């Protein structure tokens, strides 16, 4: 679903994806094997991700996420809420000035940046005037490659304390084919299946480590 209003856009889709934590060795094996001969400049993006929540963590308690992602191509505010066993992702475009204003204040209210004609996800005790505070930020180097109906994503994320972790992600249009594709990929490279927590949860887990 794509709605264009007044130069801003709302993009909403069900995010069907499967993730697996990787060791450093597994990550570089996949980079070598899956991206060999491909131009990394065409397949790589650098992201800075900023995560927000209320003081009493209303989003975390509802397994939801509010994030601003900054890349060379665009600035995007994203809401993720549980849906059908996955996450429904709603994206809003932000200008550079809006991002600067939000980061300088380290807080945001949706009413200041999202038109009243655009919908926001329905969550308990969350409205357009709810105040969200900047909770965490980190950088991700991402490699992407389309294989048929599936997107292979390799992430190398550097957290605020300098810790780095690695992740394989498969995005799919349909759950069962995506699960099968991920399992086949892991088997082909002898990689163990490991649960991968959301990046913001990993950031919290790593917060006190050095």
Features:
alpha+beta; 210 residues; globular; disordered N terminus; eleven-stranded antiparallel beta sheet; 25% helix
Largest β-sheet summary: 11 strands, antiparallel
Beta fraction: 35-45%
Provide the low-confidence segments as ranges.
Answer: 1-7
* H and E order: EEEHHEHEEEHEEEEHH
| Coarse shape | globular
Q: What structural class do helix, strand and pairing data support?
A: alpha+beta
Q: How far from one another are the termini?
A: 42 Å
Number of helices: 6
Structure write-up:
The protein has 210 residues and is α+β, with helices and mostly antiparallel strands. It is built from 6 helices and 11 strands. It has helices at 24-35, 40-43, 58-61, 96-105, 175-189, 199-206, and strands spanning 2-5, 8-15, 17-22, 44-53, 65-70, 75-83, 86-94, 107-109, 131-147, 150-158, 164-171. Strands 1, 2, 3, 4, 5, 6, 7, 8, 9, 10 and 11 form an 11-stranded antiparallel beta sheet that branches. The longest helix has 15 residues, at 175-189. The chain starts with a strand and ends with a helix. 21% of the residues are buried. The model is unreliable at 1-7 (pLDDT under 50).
Layout of helices and strands:
Blueprint: E1 2-5, E2 8-15, E3 17-22, H1 24-35, H2 40-43, E4 44-53, H3 58-61, E5 65-70, E6 75-83, E7 86-94, H4 96-105, E8 107-109, E9 131-147, E10 150-158, E11 164-171, H5 175-189, H6 199-206
Antiparallel strand pairs: 1-2, 2-7, 3-11, 4-5, 4-9, 5-6, 6-7, 8-9, 9-10, 10-11
């Amino acid at each position: 679903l794509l709605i264009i209003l007044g130069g801003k856009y709302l993009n909403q889709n069900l995010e069907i994806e499967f993730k697996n934590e990787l060791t450093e060795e597994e990550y570089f094996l996949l980079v070598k094997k899956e991206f060999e001969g491909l131009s990394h400049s065409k397949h790589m993006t650098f992201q800075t991700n900023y995560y927000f929540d209320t003081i009493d963590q209303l989003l975390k308690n509802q397994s939801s996420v509010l994030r601003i992602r900054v890349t060379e191509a665009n600035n995007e505010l994203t809401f993720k809420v549980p849906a059908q066993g996955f996450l429904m992702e709603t994206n809003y475009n932000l200008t550079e000035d809006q991002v600067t204003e939000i980061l300088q204040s380290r807080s945001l209210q949706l009413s200041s940046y999202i038109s009243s004609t655009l919908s926001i996800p329905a969550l308990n005790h969350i409205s357009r005037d709810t105040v969200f505070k900047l909770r965490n930020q980190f950088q991700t180097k991402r490699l992407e490659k389309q294989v048929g109906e599936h997107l292979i994503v390799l992430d190398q994320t550097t957290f605020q304390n300098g810790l780095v972790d690695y992740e394989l992600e498969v995005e799919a249009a349909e759950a069962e084919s995506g699960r099968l594709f991920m399992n086949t990929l892991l088997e082909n490279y002898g990689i163990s299946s490991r649960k991968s927590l959301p990046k913001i949860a990993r950031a919290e887990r790593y917060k006190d480590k050095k």
